[in-house]
Fold this sequence. Notes:
Blueprint: H1 15-29, E1 33-37, H2 45-60, E2 66-70, H3 74-79
Amino acid sequence: MTNFLERSVNDDLSGGEKKRSEMFQMAVANPRVAILDEIDSGLDIDALRIVAEGIRAVRAEPPEMGFVLITHYQRLLDEVTPDHVHILVNG
């Protein structure tokens, strides 16, 4: 059995568990801007919905926290409504 007090953060977690842990860490750290680079990578639809719910919850309070979501797929944007979308083409 792993000693939870001595192991590194996010060790031995599934992909979805790591993403949820990252969302919790972001909420606790309360940064001015959170950059979520491919937060949807490797997630099944159920895990994506849980992560999206976390993004919406953190985004709702405090409202001054900014988010930059970087994704290659529409499915994250189906779950989290962005204020602005920028599409990078050929670069």
